[in-house]
Amino acid sequence: MTKEEFSALVFDTYGVMADCPFEDSPEILVFRHARNQKWFAVTMPVKKKRLGIGGEEPLDIVNLKCAPEVIESLAGIEPGLYPAYHMNKTHWITATLDGACDKETLAWLLGISYDLTSGKK
After folding, report:
1. Nearest one of 2, 33, 4, 5 to 98, comparing CA atoms
2. SS3 (DSSP) at 12
């Protein structure tokens, strides 16, 4: 799944479009709840070496909020899933947007993240 396909999945599922909160980094896209403005996903390019997979090439990733036990069972074990880059590694997970992480897993993790950040109803 590419960054564009991920953005389309978020819009199709939750009706949310990304915003670019960092003026100096327009490539960073943030997806947030309309009601409480909490982030549930953020996409950005990072160098592969930042994920511990070697190489200077940029790679699009998405960070998603997740339950610690899910992160422990997936990050570094399942293809394309890593401890969160540039976020709290206990509560966030990173998925690569290069096809290594399958679409079903990304959709499942997106749902978890959306629910965990929705706040009280």
Report:
1. 2
2. helix
CA angle 29, 32, 35 (to 5 degrees): 155
- pTM, rounded to two decimals: 0.91
Averaged pLDDT for residues 52-68: 92
Tens-place pLDDT, residues 26-46: 999 999 998 899 999 999 999
Q: Minimal CA–CA distance to 35: which of 121, 93, 105, 104?
A: 121
Q: How confident is the model at residue 86 (pLDDT cuts 50, 70, 90)?
A: confident
76: left (phi over 0), alpha (psi -120 to 50) or beta: left
User: Distances in Å between the alpha carbon of 102 and those of 33, 56, 78, 108, 120?
Assistant: 24, 24, 10, 10, 30
d(CA 58, CA 28): 13
CATH number corresponding to 3-117? 3.90.1150.30
48 contacts 55 by C-beta, under 8 angstroms: yes
- Give residue 27's Cα distance to chain centre: 14
Annotated domain spans of the chain: 3-117
